[in-house]
Structure formats: C-alpha cells, structure tokens
Design a protein that fits this description.
alpha/beta; TIM Barrel; two-stranded antiparallel ribbon; 16 helices; 9 strands; 11% strand; disordered C terminus
C-alpha cells in the first residue's frame, strides 16, 4: 500500500468503503444481449440505431446453456444483461441469476417476475422524462410506459430508475425523480446521445450543464436515494478525466477477444482484460457495449464511464479529495449492482454525497478537469 493511500485510509469512513469493496472481490464482467427483439422502439436507441440486431438473432436454448457453462469456466462473476428487451426472457434471467451476480436494463413495460429472481439481480428501469415525454419518445406516442413501469416496480427492492437525461428536457428531472423516489426506488442517471441526429432538444451537442445542475439539486433533495454522484455526472457529461478526453482510445470496456480491438489493447491505456460484449447469438462479440462502429463522441453510457474512472485509480491519488472521488465511484458501482451488502451500503449514500460536496468545495480540481 502506497504511503498516500495509507494516509487517505486513516479516515474511518473511507477505510470502511475501501474494505467493503476489497471484501467483495474483483469483478470479472461481461455484457450480453439476452435477445435481439424489443416490445417498443425508443427514439435513437443505440441497439437498433447501430443495427446490432442484424445477423445476430437470439441464441437457442442449447447455445444459451453452453454459454453459461463457458463463462463460469472462464471465471465470469458479473453479467450486465441488455438487448433487445430482457424482460421477454424471464426463464433465461433465472438461469443467469442462479450462476452470476447480474444487472439487467429493462424498458419497464413488462415486469420482471420476483420468483426465482429475488437475489443476485439488480434491475435498472428506463425512463427518459415525464409521462408525456416518455410516451412520445419511447412509446411512439401511444404507450404509457412510465406509469406502467411505476406500477410494475413500486417498492421493488431490486429496482432502481435508470434515467436517461436529455439536454432539452432538464426541466423535467426534478418532477420525475420525485415520482421515482415516492415509488420507493433509487435513481441513477444516464445521458442521451443523439445517434440519429434528431437535433433540437435531443441534441447532446447542446451540452449537459442544465442537466448537471438539476442532478445536483435532486442529490441535495434526496441524498439517500440518488446513485449518481456529482463527480460521475461531470465526467460522463463532459467526457473529461484529468488529461484524457473520452473516446475509443481510452474506453476500458471493449471485447478483448475481438480482433478489431488489438491496436487499442496496445496503446498503454488501462482496460478490463476479461470483458466481452456478446451479441444475441452468444457466439460473437462486437467492438464494445454500445456500438459496432459508432462515433464514441455520442456515447455517454454511464457504465462505461464508471469503468473508465475505476481503472484509472492512480490518477486519483494526488489528494484525499481526488481519492474520495475515485473510491466513492467504485463503491457506488458495487452498491448499485449489489456486490456489497445493499441494505448496509444504502445507509452510506448520503454521507458519500456530503463528502464529495466537501471535496469540491475545499480542493482545487485538476486543471484538465476544470476545463471540462
């Protein structure tokens, strides 16, 4: 343990977070598309915008079972389940949960059952705005997805809201978060990337300053219910981490078995050597979680940015405040995905936000970060 790290961990709260993460162990993760179909069409969905469903149809049962055994043998212990729409395959979710810790992203329209999925599963329920906005952008103007999802996951201990914040709809954030919290759930934010170049209110090129301000306000209002921290919000939405600018060359979550990534693996930036992003056929992998050949400047995926921060620990050792930003990012990732005790860990959320506010107030940010 370095002298600086030992000094920072003299703080009992930081030591507690650090020890809980260490006790949980190293993550050996993959991402998998559970199927290639969906029961709605969200405006500019990365999965269909980048044609990930083409040529990669859902694996049959024999292939699925063989895949589980393959990943167990390979040492995988955490699975991010996407698609398509995973709720359409509940039996396969049960199989995964029997063997791995897992997080699943769902549109919320069809409830993921409780039976056989009480443990090992964290459920991120998508929402893009208030009921009218969600109906228009995700329900094709016809399907009331948000009200149905609220009903499906009311007081569900497995569920949190995976709120994709859109630049032109920042004014809806506080009212939507209030409904989610009143529903008995936590909230994590994602940021919308305008892959289809719809422009106007959907255009990420407008910047996320108003979104970040709204997120900071809901953190202040519900400090024990918001998984997104001010630090992660800033890194994701600005694409800056110290001297690095977000893009393919620094992204840490890509398929290490895919030849397209060989040059990236040799450029000196850290990455997760175990990670693979499997297509729905469960036999092929794509470049990364959210794209085949998309422009990474449109990627604001919070999971990939979590990994970017986590694997750049050494950059965060310059001060106690910087280390606090890194450790709380690591801890929040473990907490959201139930890799640490969720009930105990949830009691730390408000203090994590308080510590980060204290760090931002008392410690000068690195110049590159301030520039973002």
């Amino acid at each position: 343990m370095s002298r600086r790290l030992k000094e920072y961990l003299a703080d009992p709260f930081l030591k507690m977070l650090y020890d809980e993460v260490r006790a949980a162990g190293k993550i050996q993760s993959i991402s998998m598309d559970l199927n290639h179909v969906c029961n709605i069409r969200c405006a500019g969905c990365y999965y269909f915008s980048d044609r990930m469903d083409e040529g990669h149809h859902t694996a049959d049962e024999a292939v699925f079972d063989a895949f589980i055994e393959q990943e167990k043998q390979r040492g995988t212990n955490f699975v991010t389940i996407v698609g398509g729409e995973p709720s359409l395959k509940p039996e396969r979710l049960r199989k995964i949960a029997r063997h791995f810790k897992a997080s699943v992203s769902t549109n919320g329209l069809k409830k993921i059952p409780m039976e056989g999925l009480e443990e090992n599963l964290s459920i991120g329920v998508s929402v893009w705005g208030n009921a009218e906005t969600d109906r228009r952008l995700r329900g094709n103007g016809k399907v009331d997805i948000f009200p149905q999802a609220l009903k499906n996951y009311k007081n569900d201990p497995r569920a949190f809201w995976y709120y994709t914040a859109i630049p032109g709809y920042a004014g809806q954030i506080e009212e939507v978060v209030a409904r989610c919290v009143d529903n008995g759930n936590h909230v994590l934010f994602n940021f919308y990337g305008d892959l289809e170049r719809y422009g106007d209110k959907l255009d990420h090129r407008r910047g996320f300053e108003e979104v970040r301000q709204a997120i900071d306000r809901v953190i202040g209002r519900y400090p024990d219910r918001i998984f997104m921290t001010s630090y992660v919000s800033r890194v994701v939405s600005t694409g800056r981490l110290y001297d690095q600018e977000w893009g393919y060359d620094v992204c840490t979550s890509f398929s290490t078995d895919n030849p397209v990534n060989l040059a990236r693996m040799k450029n000196g930036h850290p990455y997760s050597p175990h990670f693979r992003a499997y297509n729905a056929d469960l036999q092929s992998t794509r470049r990364c979680c959210t794209g085949i050949d998309r422009d990474c400047s449109s990627c604001f995926d919070v999971w990939q940015h979590f990994s970017w921060i986590i694997l750049n620990m050494k950059k965060h050792l310059g001060s106690k405040g910087e280390f606090t930003r890194w450790l709380t990012t690591m801890y929040m990732f473990y907490l959201i995905n139930r890799l640490v005790d969720f009930e105990r860990g949830s009691r730390h959320i408000a203090e994590i936000h308080r510590r980060l506010k204290e760090a931002d107030a008392g410690i000068e940010l690195p110049q590159a970060e301030m520039a973002g």
